[in-house]
Design goal:
12% strand, 226 residues, two-stranded antiparallel sheet, alpha/beta, globular, 10 helices
């Protein structure tokens, strides 16, 4: 996996997450090609069309099926394509199932950017990345509690309008598109986004997407009639 002009495929239903991972991969392998897919069906179509994908970054929670099932299918139908799971699911059993199904790495989405980059660098160098929690005894395998874990939007003080902004942010829309959708001025949207990041305790939109995914929030559709 040390060849130049590598071919990558990022499979995740969140546009911001895909873009962040694509940027990270390109920083690790200059000249590489990165394709993106939001569903398992799109991922299989990309794999079939490309003929040869070196590495797939795969989220386990996809809109049209199980990422574990897709991982197994890739292992059967696309021999030679390595798969790294990057998921918010930190369950020890799930980690072990993914590795047993042929994943060459399992990276928790909640890890800092530096850890994710280092883990991918290890895989690209021919290694296998296993998160420390998967190597611990079952009694000690639970990840440490994180600030805000289990909190609801109301617990964090988010208003209804801020939840609408957050729902659009989760769709990958920038400030201008959020302005158009909700009929708000751009400074107002910026203030809402800042308040959302502050409430979630994160520094970027990508981290906000990961935090909301981890918390498992179901966001209401934005009311665009106001």
């Amino acid at each position: 996996m040390m060849l130049d002009a590598m071919q990558f495929l990022v499979v995740d239903d969140h546009p911001l997450v895909r873009e962040a991972l694509a940027s990270l991969l390109l920083s690790l392998r200059q000249g590489a090609t990165v394709q993106q897919a939001a569903t398992g069906a799109e991922a299989l179509a990309a794999l079939d069309a490309a003929g040869s994908i070196d590495l797939v970054l795969l989220d386990l929670r996809l809109p049209d099926g199980s990422g574990l099932d897709l991982l197994r299918r890739i292992g059967t139908d696309h021999i030679g394509t390595a798969v790294v799971v990057l998921s918010g699911d930190l369950d020890r059993k799930t980690v072990q199932e993914a590795l047993a199904a042929g994943a060459v790495g399992y990276i928790p989405k909640t890890e800092p950017h530096e850890i994710i980059a280092g883990a991918l660098g290890l895989v690209l160098a021919g290694g296998v990345y296993v998160p420390p929690m998967a190597l611990q005894p079952a009694a000690a395998a639970r990840p440490p509690s994180m600030a805000g874990a289990g909190a609801s939007p109301s617990d964090l003080g988010l208003t209804g309008r801020q939840l609408e902004v957050l729902a659009l942010l989760m769709q990958g829309r920038n400030n201008k598109l959020i302005c158009r959708a909700l009929g708000l001025a751009e400074p107002t949207v910026k203030n809402h986004v800042s308040a959302i990041l502050r409430a979630l305790g994160v520094d970027s939109r990508t981290e906000a997407v990961l935090a909301v995914t981890r918390l498992g929030w179901i966001l209401p559709p934005p009311d665009q009639s106001r």
